[in-house]
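Lab notes, practical 5.
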Amino acid sequence: MLKGQVAIVTGASVGLGRAMAFALAEAGACVALASPQTSLLEEAAAQINARCGERRAIAVTTDITQQADCERARDATLQAFGDISILVNNARREQRGPGLPTEGNNFAFWESDPAIWMQAVNVNVSGTFLMTRTVAPHLIARGWGRIVNISTSLDTMQRRHNSPYGVTKAALDAASLIWAADLAGTGVTCNILLPGGMVDTDGTRPSTPQRRTLNVDVMNAALLWLASPESDGHTAERYNGSRWRMDLPATEAARAALEAPVLRTPEPRG
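Output from the prediction step:
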C-alpha cells in the first residue's frame, strides 16, 4: 500500500506514535522514528526492522522544539532512505509535571504552573510548526506529500481545567487548516487525525462499564489511507479514527470517519 514511501513520525517511542510507526512500516513504508526518548526509540526501530525487514526503520533522537534537531531528523531520514513523503506530527506534551498525581496539572488556568503551560505550548504548537516547516520544502519540491497532525476531540479542547492541553490542540487544528490552504496546488495535503476517545496507550487503562477506552491502534487504518495516494484531493479535513469502519471500502470508511473541522471555513469577503 505504501511501498516506496518514507515517513517521519514524531513521538514514536511509545503509545499512539509507536503504533502508527509500526502500521506505516507494515504497509510498506520506511519510517524514521523521532522522539527525545532514545532507548525506547531504538527498541521500537529494532522491532520494526526485525518484523518488516532490515533498514526499514531508523531512530533519530529529536526534540522538536529545537530547530537543529528537526533539521537533523530530516537529514538523517534523507540519508537513510533518500526521500521523505509523509510527516506524522504526533509528539505532544501533556500538562502533567513531575511529582503531580495522575490527573496531572488539571487546575483552573489561574492555578496552573506557568512553566508547564509554556512547555505544552512549546512542544504541541511551536514544535509541530518547526518540524513541519523543516520538512515541508522537501515535500513541495517533490510535488506530492502528506502531513498528518494528530489532534483530539472537541470536548477535550473545551473541558473544564483542561488548559493548556486543550488550548494547544485547538491551535493545531487552526494551524492545519492554514497550512492546507498555504499548500494548495503543491500536491501536498495537510489533514487532522484524532483517536476519538481515551486510548489505552500502555495497557493500564482497560475499558470498564463506566468508561470505554480505545486500542492504541485506533488511528492506524485512517492514517494509512491519509498517507496513501487514495486520499489525493483530500486536505484541510478532520478524521476520527474511532469512526473508521473496517467493514467498508476505504473511501466509504473515510467518509464515515470525517468530522467537521473545529473552525468553519470563513465566508468570502465582499
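Observations recorded by the TA: The mean pLDDT is 90. DSSP finds eight helices and eight strands in the chain.
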